[in-house]
Amino acid sequence: NPMQAETVQAIAARIWPGDADDPGAREAGAVYYIDRALAGPYADHLVTYVTALEQIDAAANSAHGSDFAYLDEAQQDAMLTSLSRGELRGVSGGQAFFNLVRTHTMEGVFSDPIYGGNRDFVGWKAVGYPGPFYFISIEEQQSFEPLNMPYQSIVDL
Question: What Cα–Cα distance (Å) separates residue 56 from each residue in 4, 6, 18, 73?
């Protein structure tokens, strides 16, 4: 639902923060990747997400009087640190959930845009990966310099 999406987006934005000048998970649309994945190949994680997000918002309300998505960044960071250590009160399996959502966030930042994330090639630009090409020379494969190639997705092949 929309509130769960806001919470996932807020978590992802703290895992890979960004802004207009230095895009992160929010700007890359990682939440859209996660949403699509939970509706498809990661459907077995849906109950885990729903349960954990409900517990995280309850913990945020208990500690700060607001859902997680509406806390300031320092409060979110403190809660996520506790979650990553499995110490966030009221969240069962918090450490495992944090590791899961962190993995899915990174997938959303670095996957091919066809899967819903990596908008405007945010993740690929961060690491200098131009995307899939039918042919990349041995020299280009071994280069430590950024490749002078346009960014493209699977759909561009």
Answer: 10, 12, 22, 15
Q: What letter represents residue 101's amino acid?
A: V
Could you give the CA distance from residue 63 to residue 48 in angstroms, rounded to a whole number? 22
Distance CA 80, CA 72 (A): 12
DSSP annotation of 115 reads G
Task: Yes or no: say if 34 and 80 are a contact pair by the CB < 8 Å rule.
Answer: no
Distance CA 88, CA 39 (A): 27
Residue with tokens 């978590």: 11
pLDDT per residue rounded down to tens, the chain (157 residues): 999 999 999 999 999 999 888 999 999 999 999 999 999 999 999 999 999 999 999 999 999 999 999 999 999 999 999 999 999 999 999 999 999 999 999 999 999 999 999 999 999 999 888 999 999 899 988 988 888 899 999 999 9
Q: How many CA atoms are closer than 13 Å to the CA of 48, on its beta-carbon side?
A: 14
Cα–Cα separations (whole angstroms), residue 22 to 105, 112, 122, 138, 141: 17, 19, 9, 31, 26
The token pair that represents 117 in the structure block: 């994330």
